[in-house]
Design brief:
The chain has 363 residues and is an alpha/beta fold. It is built from 13 helices and 7 strands. The protein is globular, with a radius of gyration of 21 Å. The structure holds S-adenosylmethionine.
Length: 363
């Protein structure tokens, strides 16, 4: 356990390793403001925190920002445990979602406590310990069953994404897989000690759930010197549907929803470049004149589009003095592969990712 442990509180699709933003920010002078306009689970913001730098994170998925906020909250294991214990002690009426999925996904007693916590956090999630508890709960909500002490609340599931309800029910019933009773408070207590014992000092931050295409980045009243980010890979539209169970926990519907208009549109590579161009242009207005940006970007299997072309076109179209200094291969993306194996999704060939090193030169 060290100060980087908290970064892994909850998995996320296409997250990049902590070393990626950490390396880019390592030499930044104190008080440098860092920006990630597609922050996902806040890896860039957490790297900034480790280095004592203030940061802004934006993501249009509320799941992403809920995880990221939990990693920036200054709290301690005891405070997280206490707020959970208080919630579970309360004698509230809870509303149970209906359908086979819910009765096979969680043991009844475990589910009752899970619902209590969900409803309480939906009413109030303002304090650091509540934000921390929310991120922790998102991390333990679903995952594989293990032999010793349980790590997750659900029946057998991947931890990176949630299986769709009908598929999951079929999978469990065909294999006679039933949910075990999990003592929620014990698991929260154990995980809170694991994740929140060693924390980096608190830093200033803004974490916004919003659409970066529509944001005025000057709103924060700071000038950014470092932008480290990874937009959705072209064709990757499933951030919210694949995380539907976590979405439900933070207030989404109890079924899978596919229409999320605040996510980037993937109708053609040129349209995708144009959306990115608009974001880069707006960011450049809120940047120092010598600001630097690193963008990690790749492709996905079922779209025949050239990620390098999409990205370079977006810089050109932004027409705001961006200069691409280097493009480096970041190797093959294999995250998610092991997860997929557990739930028997067909495996696919890993894809290549690139890092684009860019300077802002204000016109
Ligand atoms: C590749 S992931 C970022 C992962 C992040 N680097 C991490 O380590 O967790 C891309 C993110 O872009 C977000 N996104 C998609 N469209 C967006 C938009 N219009 N505005 C802001 N975020 C958006 C997705 O929700 C997703 O979290």
């Amino acid at each position: 356990m060290d100060k980087t442990t908290l970064n892994a509180i909850c998995p996320y699709f296409t997250m990049f390793p902590l070393e990626v933003p950490y390396r880019q920010l390592q030499k930044a002078v104190p008080n440098t403001w860092v920006l990630d306009p597609f922050c996902g689970r806040g890896t860039t913001n957490y790297a900034a925190r480790l280095l004592g730098l203030p940061s802004v994170g934006i993501d249009s998925s509320p799941i992403a920002t809920a995880i990221a906020e939990g990693k920036l909250a200054k709290t301690n294991p005891n405070a997280v445990y206490k707020v959970c214990e208080e919630i579970l002690r309360s004698n509230k009426n809870i509303t149970w979602p209906e359908g086979d999925f819910w009765s096979i996904c969680f043991h009844e007693e475990t589910f009752k406590n899970l619902l209590k916590i969900r409803e309480s956090l939906l009413k109030d999630c303002k304090t650091p310990e509540r934000k921390a508890l929310r991120a922790l709960m998102l991390g333990i909500l679903h995952g594989p069953k293990n032999k010793g002490l349980p790590s997750y609340l659900s029946n057998q599931m991947p931890r990176t994404y949630a299986a769709k309800p009908d598929y999951a029910v079929k999978f469990w019933t065909q294999r006679n897989l039933y949910p075990d009773y999990v003592d929620v408070l014990e698991l929260v207590s154990r995980k809170a000690r694991h994740f929140f014992t060693e924390q980096p000092p608190a830093v200033d931050y803004h974490m916004i759930c919003g659409d970066s295409r529509e944001l005025d980045f000057s709103y924060f009243g700071v000038k950014f010197s470092k932008v480290v980010t990874s937009p959705p890979y072209y064709g990757m539209r499933t951030y919210v549907p694949d995380q539907w169970l976590r979405f439900w926990f933070i207030g989404g519907p109890s079924s899978v929803t596919y229409n999320h208009p605040s996510q980037m549109t993937h109708s053609s590579p040129s349209m995708f470049s144009s959306q990115l161009a608009g974001i880069w242009r707006n960011i450049s207005k809120a940047c120092e004149s010598d600001a630097k940006m690193v963008v990690r970007f790749g492709g996905i299997h079922d779209r025949k589009a050239n990620p390098k072309e999409i990205m370079v076109n977006s810089f050109r179209e932004a027409d705001c003095g961006l200069r691409v200094n280097t493009i480096r291969s970041a190797g093959l993306a294999s995250e998610g592969k092991r997860q997929a194996e557990q739930f028997q999704r067909p495996l696919r060939k890993p894809i290549e990712e690139f890092d684009f090193y860019v300077s802002f030169r204000r016109k």
